[in-house]
Design goal:
Blueprint lengths: L5 H22 L3 H29 L4 H27 L4 H20 L9
Helix pairs in contact: 1-2, 1-3, 2-3, 3-4
The protein binds protoporphyrin IX containing FE.
């Protein structure tokens, strides 16, 4: 868990899938289903954070600035998923949050790939 990214990748991949499922349920008018998926997604937020923090705590000294940005980006992605789902339930606008979500997801993904563990498609 400290030296390989498998657990981390598993948690954020499942998290993103649950986010899409919750959006689809909302679109289909199934608010109860969406609420249940959202609860499970919240557990995955914690798992993404725990696996990310374990990797971060062991490896950040290699490049504290980039690891810090990766941490921040990951937290923003999680925060935006939660904001979008909560605001959809309340019938409020989500445009700004979608913008931040997409930018943060791209930055987090590229940083994750660039950093030395696991996938290294950019070096
Ligand atoms: C949904 C949010 C997140 C996404 C999409 C994401 C994505 C990624 C990706 C694509 C990688 C590279 C995997 C690999 O190279 O094998 C990675 C690694 C990593 N992530 Fe995340 N992550 C997220 C959240 C977080 C959070 C919240 C933290 C910190 C608490 C974090 C910390 C890390 C660390 C430290 C690494 C290892 C970087 C390395 O040395 O290669 N991530 N993540």
């Amino acid at each position: 868990m400290f030296d390989t990214t498998h657990a981390h990748i598993t948690t954020w991949a499942i998290g993103l899938i649950l986010f899409v499922v919750a959006l689809a349920l909302h679109k289909g008018g199934n608010e109860k289903g969406k609420k249940i998926v959202q609860m499970i997604l919240r557990v995955f937020y914690l798992l993404i954070l725990i696996t990310g923090i374990l990797l971060f705590s062991k490896h950040q000294s290699y490049n504290p600035a980039l690891y810090g940005l990766k941490f921040l980006g990951g937290v923003i992605v999680i925060a935006m998923m939660e904001m979008i789902l909560v605001r959809l339930s309340k019938g409020k606008g989500t445009g700004l949050f979608w913008g931040i979500f997409i930018i943060a997801l791209i930055v987090t993904f590229i940083l994750g790939i660039k950093l030395p563990l696991g996938w290294n498609w950019l070096s």
